[in-house]
Structures are given as structure tokens and as C-alpha cells.
Amino acid sequence: MKRQFRYPKHFEEQKKLSKSTKKRIQMAEVSLGDFTGRLKNDLLNWFSLTPQHWIMLHAVMLAYFKNQSITKNQLLKVIEKSYLTSNVYVDTAIKKGYFRIIRNIKDKRSIFILPSVITIKTFEEFIDRRDQLYKGIK
What we know:
The chain is mainly alpha-helical and 138 residues long. It has 7 helices and 2 strands, in the order ααααααββα.
């Protein structure tokens, strides 16, 4: 039979937590649940592979929501990895169907990156969920 760990008595006396500590605990628990929940979604899981993937997703989505364009070259600079590594990240997102491209009519060398419909829908649901999760913390 396993023995359950017990804190020493002086720890029991210190269990009274301040309001700010309780809030931090709640936020950490919600954050952990939010993170593990994001791993269940293939798209969000893939963009969670590295901080650069996460930055790439947000850069494209922010440009989309602001009704601005972002070129592949601009996105590669935002990722802040080697050109080759960044290019692989973007190309993989395109091949997976998370991003789509539009060629610039005026400059054939320039490629615009846009989120796919599934990326927009998933990201909006993710942001809305976070809004609801963190709203209840007082």
C-alpha cells in the first residue's frame, strides 16, 4: 500500500493563501488546461511545435484581421530563424493547408500569405475560448 505524502505541520499553518496567490493559482490551472486543450487540435498542435511556429500563426492572423497583406519574405523575417528553416516552416504550413498563397500580379517574385478557412475558424474559436476561460478568474 502506498503511503500518501503529508506536509509537515508548519506547512499546514501556512496554507492560508492571499487573494493574489489564489488568483495566480487559478490562472496557472486555466493556462495549463488551455495549453493541453490546444494540443488536441491538429492545427493548433502543429503551430505549437516551436515558438517560431506560434509567432508565424499569429503574424498571419493579425495581418488578416487588420486587413493587411503579409508577404512570404516579411513572414520569414518575423520568424527569426535561418532563411532555410523559416522557409521550411512556411512551406509546410502551406502544404498542410493551413496557409494559402496569392502571387503578386505586379511583382512575380512576391508571394502573399493568407490563412486558410480552417485556420481562420480554428484561430477564432481558440481566441474566443481563451476569452471565456480567463474572464471567470477574479
